[in-house]
Amino acid sequence: MEVIANEHLESEKVYLDHAAATPVDPQVVSVMCHWLTDGYGNPSSSHSLGRLSRNAIQRARHQVAELIGALDSEIIFTSSGTESDNMALCGVLAAAPKSRKRLITSAIEHSAILSNINRLESAGYKVTLLPVDNLGRVACKDLEQALDNDVSLVSIMYANNEVGTIQDIKRHVDIVKPYKALFHTDAVQAVGLLPIDVNELGVDLLSLSAHKIYGPKGMGALYIREGVLIKPLLVGGGQEFNLRAGTENVPAIVGLGEAAELARQRLKYVDRLKKLRDYLQQELNRIPGIIFYGDPDNKLPNHCCFSISGYKGANLVAALDLIGFYCSSGSACHGLKPSHVLQAMGVAQDHYNQAIRVTLGWSNTIEQIQRFSAVIQDLIAD
Q: What SS3 class is residue 4?
């Protein structure tokens, strides 16, 4: 596969990796600038500069709450989706009664969830890992069979970051509730692309991240339903309702708030992303030996994960990079490691390293998709 960089294409870089990180929206940058320069008051200070920072945080909290149908007081700001996941798992289990020390989660969760398993088991907790089918779906019967009165928390991601499959979270919550266990969902990939109402879903905790919705990196939030008991990971001052100590990162919080507001406004246009993704799959489907992953009927609207028989995903991604197209060969958090998601889905071992993930964003156009599809086919032909 010979790659010759084309000067015209190199001058027009095309970003197709929005599941890894989105560009920060200019409106978000504009709003953050004041709080990076003039808005330096500590939110805990009683003087006017402190009050201005405190008010800015409360406005951002309201914007995030509105995006997911929560109360303002149910939003806790964190440093990332990873911290939110850790806070949900470890915080709930630590606060649970001794008779409820078991976690149920799925085999395709983000590493922020799965990397906690060994630590939790070493601390005396029990963890049950649910399998998925070949489309990446958790079966209701498997969840029901795993439940018992010793379960404190069930954590199942809303939508998978590698293959885009959306889980039936509301149905899963309905199965869990009779056992009086709490339900957490990692919605980092879903927020901003799917309409989410925590009360309609019935979830008790929900994680989200700013840099997946055109906000700054290093900023996230955890929804905690009113009345849910949780022990904080960080102790110190009384910030974030005594649940997350540390002086607040006001610029990033304000950035997340603005990004959440923009995401809420853009939800009505999501069908445009889906049509663009469907067109991409239609064009790619002409390639012999191509395989698409994830649930074709219930997948994130901007998500396309595929492999081409005989071609290593990392090599294709590198070749595309040289030409000016940025996509990935799996989760950005796993680098070149074999995909645990594809393994859990029962994908043939020789396909583990062939997958390519293309995730579209608001700036992508049909012309870019046409060029991308043509370049892929040229690379394969070579």
A: coil
Q: Is the pTM of this model over 0.90?
A: yes
CA 29 to chain centre: 21
- CA 243 to chain CA centroid, Å, is 22
Per-residue pLDDT of 299-333, as tens digits, reads 999 999 999 988 888 999 999 999 999 999 865 45
SS3 state at 217: coil
Name all domains of the chain by residue range, CATH numbers in brackets.
Answer: 7-24+268-381 (3.90.1150.10), 26-266 (3.40.640.10)
CA atoms within 13 A on the CB side of 320: 29
Q: Which residues are catalytic?
A: 333
Tell me the pLDDT tens digit for each residue of 108-155: 999 999 999 999 999 999 999 999 999 999 999 999 999 999 999 999
